[in-house]
Write a structure and sequence with these properties.
The chain is of the alpha+beta class. It has one domain: Peptide deformylase (Peptide Deformylase, Alpha-Beta Complex), CATH 3.90.45.10. The chain has 3 helices and 7 strands, in the order H-E-E-E-E-E-E-E-H-H. The strands form 2 sheets. Strands 1-2-3-6-7 form a 5-stranded antiparallel β-sheet, with helices on both faces. A two-stranded antiparallel sheet has the order 4-5. It catalyses: N-terminal N-formyl-L-methionyl-[peptide] + H2O = N-terminal L-methionyl-[peptide] + formate. This is Peptide deformylase. One of its GO terms (molecular function) is metal ion binding.
Length: 162
C-alpha cells in the first residue's frame, strides 16, 4: 500500500521545476509502481512525480491498454493543433478546454534508464504534454485567461482550507 498522496493546487511543489533523475535503481522502480497505483486509484490517465510531492522528472501515463513511463522527457517534435477539455488530479473538479499540439515525438528514459522515442497523437499526445508540463512547474490552467485562473485559484484555496 502506498503512502503517496496527490498534491492539490496551489501547493507550491506544483510550481517548481523538477530535477532530472540520475539514479535508476530498484527504489525508482518501486516509486513508479506506486505512482501507477495512485493514478489508478484516483481514476487518472497520467501522473507526474511533483503531484505526489517528489520534485523529480518522472511521469506515468496509462492509455489504450498501455503503460508509459517518461523519465527526464523532452519533446523533440510537435505538429498540428487541437482544442480539447482537460482536467487534472491536482486541480479537482475543474475541466477546461486547452489548445495543444495534436502530434508529438517525445524522448524519455524508461524505468531502466533506456532512452526511448515515442510518437503520439491525439489524446495520448495531450496526456504526455500535460504531464511534461507538470515537470516544468506548469499546470493546464496556465493556458486559460487570467480571469478564469483567478476564479479557479479562489475555488482551490477554499478546497485547500477544508
Amino acid at each position: 500500500m502506498t503512502t503517496l498522496k496527490v498534491r492539490i493546487y496551489p501547493d507550491p511543489i506544483l510550481r517548481k521545476e523538477a530535477a532530472p533523475v540520475e539514479v535508476f535503481d530498484g527504489e525508482l522502480e518501486k516509486f513508479i509502481k506506486e505512482m501507477f497505483d495512485v493514478m489508478r486509484k484516483e481514476d487518472g490517465v497520467g501522473l507526474a512525480a511533483p503531484q505526489v510531492g517528489v520534485s523529480k522528472q518522472i511521469a506515468v501515463v496509462s492509455y489504450g491498454g498501455q503503460d508509459y513511463v517518461l523519465i527526464n522527457p523532452k519533446v523533440l517534435e510537435s505538429s498540428g493543433s487541437e482544442r480539447r477539455e482537460e482536467g487534472c488530479l491536482s486541480v479537482p473538479g475543474i475541466y477546461e478546454e486547452v489548445e495543444r499540439p495534436y502530434r508529438v515525438v517525445v524522448e524519455a528514459c524508461n524505468e531502466k534508464g533506456k532512452v526511448e522515442r515515442i510518437a503520439a497523437e491525439g489524446f495520448l499526445a495531450r496526456a504526455f504534454l500535460h504531464e511534461i508540463d507538470h515537470l516544468r512547474g506548469k499546470l493546464f490552467i496556465d493556458y486559460l485567461s487570467v480571469l478564469k485562473r483567478q476564479i479557479i485559484k479562489k475555488k482551490m484555496r477554499k478546497h485547500w482550507k477544508e
